[in-house]
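Students often ask why we bother encoding 3D structure as a string. The short answer is that it lets us treat folding as translation between two languages. Here is a chain of 429 residues written in the first language.
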Amino acid sequence: MSRTKLASLLLGALLVAAPGPVLHAETATPQSVGLSSERLQRVHELVERTIAAGEISGAVTLVSRNGQVAYLEAQGLMDLESKRPMQPDSMFRLASMSKPVAAVAILMLAEEGKVRLSDPVSRFIPAYANIEVGIAKPAAPGPGGPPAAAAGGPGGAPPEFYEVPATRQITVLDLLTHTSGLMSGPMGNSAGNAAFNKRHDMGLKWVEELGASPLEFQPGTRWAYSAVAGFDVLAHIVEIASGQEYNAFLVQRLFGPLGMRDVTFWPSTEQRSRLATVYQRRDGALVASENPDSMSGQKYHGGGGGIMTTAETYAQFAMMLANGGELNGARILSLRTVELMGSAFIPSTLPGRPAGEGYGLGVRVVTDSAARGTWLSDGSFGWSGAYGTHFWVDPKENLVGILLAQTPNRTFSADFENAVMQALVDQNE
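And here it is in the second language, the structure alphabet:
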């Protein structure tokens, strides 16, 4: 083992696994940063109503402005069976809120000239050089009725399709903006599933086998979510371009400098004791998920999902973005890079995007708050996770909102955005 790799692994052990005091964010009163304490109480009331309705077991909410935490509250239970109360330092599976972290890692390397947004993925993974696009075959008509759905056969059978050459190679930018078509629908998911199932044994190298899987559409022609594969490829590119394992890179270059100690892809015994239970709503009740750790593992540290952390720890990352790439003396990205990250590379008019919401580099971007029907400022950006996590940063107001729950609820997330923004009573100059 090289000295560089050994140093990275040791640093990772010190920052993520070893016990020790967690670095806490600077705090402020709401009034001192232009927020109303009385109006922030509506966040508390929203969470209470959502718990009482049986939609979530509990949540931790956080609001910061100008690099200071002005509101942090834990409500409800982190586990219904044991009735353990939610705590401010409860840990959550972030799921796709891990994606902006992978985007920042790529952008750090782009600043160093090691990765370009325009680079074809094949520059780093040669198997992607001759990737093809799947074309669904017309479904045969059913007996005495219209054709069955072309997306899949009877009983969940794989969809039938043929392949044609891609008009161009997929790029790093395509992956960051979910316009690559890589495992973004039934054809690619069906063909790539065998490789995906090897992730816990192979780590991020599982994505090297996807060059033989078809894209769902011609690159750049539409927006369709690549739930895991796209950002796992980006994380693997981080490994190849930096010469470090993905987790080691994050620890040394991002988590460590920002003081993000309470973050991991696989929790220690102590961290697991603070890990909130994931629930799904079934028949009006909350039922514990059977395999909540499928997005991460001891060897599999994916870019698409898998990070586990606390609200206060993730706030260090989000506040860095809201503050133009720097927090407490640690500059992670340049002002210009953060501006690019939150720019709408993909307009809301591209098929697959909702009104008023474009897509930047690993994040949704509010391009027209009226069209989106939101209280968020134009230019706000962020993302969510499948288990009920949600965050955004508002660069104009240097404001961060974080909602960590472990049951998906889109209405709750939107209501949280509004509850935070209506508490803003003094705009930044």
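Translate back mentally: The chain is about 30% helix and 15% strand. Keep this in mind for the problem set.
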